[in-house]
Amino acid sequence: MHALVELGKITKYFSYPKGFTLGDLQYPADIFTKWSVAEKEAIGIYEVIFDDSNKKDEKYYINTNQSFAYDASTETATASYGAATPKNTAALKTEFVTELKNQVAGELNKTDWYVIRNTEKSIAIPSNISTHRDAIRTKQASMETAIMSATDPEALKTLYTYTTTDGVQSRPLGELPILES
After folding, report:
1. For residue 162, what are the contacts with CB-CB under 8 A and spacing of at least 6?
2. Residue spans per domain, the chain
């Protein structure tokens, strides 16, 4: 991204290379790729430096729009975010519990045919299948408790953040059990 700076202020942004008119002169789009940095800066075109230091994970926060500024002392154009606002914790909890319930339904769906067969034909459900289904529901309950106990978006984010210890990747929330073949 580039910015046109005139009289110390950004007057135009270029998200992608395109031709433009400056004063009485027309410039083609290829100046953005063919001209040197010095040549572009000589006519007031500066590459925008992005500062994402205030940008936060959009799953948990609402970021501000970027603001653009030109600093004449350093001759740099920057784009930066303001302070991010945490999303509503209750809404996030509802979203994450709903997502979890959908995952549980998908996992249980893989073995539902055993339950249907048992209901229709009175054929016993193998014990490993019953144990697995119970383990899913137990893990679901503990995961829902952890989600509902989170006090803010940062605590929710921590539950879902993977870390690696001794080559093993895990997250505080844990994972649903998977049926081993």
Report:
1. 169, 170, 171
2. 2-85, 89-170
